Amino acid sequence: MPVEYATRAGTSKFHFVKDAYRYILQVLRMVMYFNPLKVLMPLALTLLGVGAAKFVFDQVRDLFYIANNTVMILMTGLILAAIGLLADLIVRSREGA
User: So where are the chain's domains?
Assistant: First the structure.
């Protein structure tokens, strides 16, 4: 026996781009709240890897020369890694409380 129902009145309030953005932001907030290393460490390691590769390239191309953008990439990777470790320390200290 099929269930009969009336069609809904009005229009949908769902907006694909805006709601998808809010959903992804919420997931990112939850991951950062419970396991920040899962977000920050891959990004930091990627930047450090790119910076190390660029450093080697700079040294092969021109000995004893380090480009400014190489230093910026390496420092950004180090700062992100430090922030990730600090955030993880804060999360771990909250678990016992």
Answer: 37-95
Residue 72 has which token pair? Answer: 């910026």
Could you give the maximum distance between any two Cα atoms of the chain, in Å?
Answer: 82
- pLDDT, tens digit (0-9, with 9 covering 90-100), for 2-31: 888 888 888 888 888 889 999 999 999 998
The CA distance from 97 to 90, in Å, is: 11
Any idea what DSSP says for residue 97?
-
Proportion of the chain above pLDDT 90, given as a percent = 74
Whole-structure pTM over 0.90, yes or no? no
Let me know: does 91 contact 33? Beta carbons within 8 Å.
yes
Residue in the block written with tokens 């955030």: 87
Phi first, then psi: give them for residue 62, nearest 5 degrees.
-150, 105
Distance CA 48, CA 82 (A): 12
Provide the residue type at 54 as one letter. Answer: K
